Amino acid sequence: MINLLYLRRKWHERNAQVLLPAVLLAPIFVLVVYLLFETAKVSVAKIRNQFALDNAAYSQVSSTSTYLNAVAMVNGPLPYRVMQSVLADRESSHILQPKDSKPNLPPIDVFDVFYKGGGFPSIGPEYENEAGLNKPPTAESNDWGVRYYDKVGEHVGDDKFSRSGWNKENPQKLPEPLPITSKKLVEDYKFAFTDGADTKDSVVMMALQFYLETYIYVGAIYKSQDYAYKQLSKNELMFREGYYLNVSNCKRSECARQSAAQLRKFLDIQTKPMDIGKFVFHYGFSSRMGSYHGGDEMELNSETLIQERLFQFAYLEQSSRSKLKTLGRGVLLKQPFSLPRNIFNINLEQKYKPYVRNRVKLTCPRGSNNCVWPNPLPKYNVRLEP
């Protein structure tokens, strides 16, 4: 009886008025804590899967941009710079003097003999003025003006060897044997073997050997880049692996299947090499008495010399150009993901169908999004948008 009276008195005290609401509110506080904890789990799952999707998309499409930039580089800028560094070296023996009957002509480089013979493209913008050697483009330039000399064979009234048929998105096969040195310049300048001298040490032979070695290496680079890209894009390897490694709740064989399927049809970018088998090398001949004759030529077969056709450049097929236009606008990727189980045993996936998304773009500074050929420009880059 005493205890009941004591408790009754305590309940009527002012300090005891807080106890009852506190007892009633305690479950609500516990519920809020659980809600915060479960909400945090959902947020973490979404953030993790969003990062996984962004990382996977960027990695996979970056392999495409690397491939296209590599092809654009070997399509002209690389061989041009290599040939320029050696065949236009003013401190070497690669300066050609005019023949005695044309003393008013200025000296030229061996570089010009190959460039104006269609041997390799040059970086503009001075190709319209027939100058093959130009200043390098600025870092911010979006038009390097890489193209072949158009007037090959023009001096003899035969334009079938003109490289204008190559300076197109769909380049034309040209009749072989194709010249790689300028017949006109060889007639006007002393680009010659010397009677009685060792031909292996002559400027003519060294220049021809250097030209062939350069394009053999350039062709090998193209083949290796093409092979690597096909392996990396096969089954969306980088995309699926990148997603799998950043989440912990999907199987390797099934991870990111939906978003990978959305990207798959745009990864099959095909380039086709333009190569030559037979070509003509024009050169001259100097006698011991000093007379010069520039009408000699030799026909060479690359399949005999190096057991394969000689690579010149690679271009995009029509279907690949269409895919690049779509990639330039962006491909929307959506990937459903699994949510962790919650303490309330509510199936949030069935009710809300959670997913992450982004838009991946592959662009270059050209409206057609074709910076591979013609006028190659190795400036493809990848962007991600929400």
Verbal overview:
It is a single chain. With 386 residues, the protein is of the alpha+beta class. It has one domain (36-385). 41% of the residues lie in helices and 17% in strands. It has eleven helices and 13 strands. The chain has helices at residues 2-11, 19-74, 77-87, 110-115, 183-188, 203-233, 237-244, 257-264, 302-305, 318-329, 348-352; strands at residues 95-96, 108-109, 122-123, 146-147, 178-179, 192-194, 271-276, 278-286, 292-301, 310-316, 331-336, 355-363, 381-385. Strands 5, 6, 8 and 9 form a four-stranded mixed β-sheet that branches. A hairpin with a 5-residue loop joins strand 8 (278-286) and strand 9. The longest helix is centred in the first third of the chain and has 56 residues, at 19-74. The chain is rod-shaped and about 140 Å long. The relative contact order is 0.16. The mean pLDDT is 86.
Number of strands: 13
Number of domains: 1
**What structural class do you assign from the helix and strand content?**
alpha+beta
The average pLDDT score comes to 86
Measured between the Cα atoms of the first and last residue, the distance is: 72 Å
General form: rod-shaped
| Unreliable runs | none
Order of helices and strands: HHHEEHEEEHEHHHEEEHEHEHEE
Rg is 35 Å
Number of helices: 11
Helix content: 40-55%
Question: Main traits of this protein?
Answer:
4-stranded mixed β-sheet; single chain; alpha+beta; 13 strands; 3-stranded antiparallel β-sheet; 17% strand; 386 residues
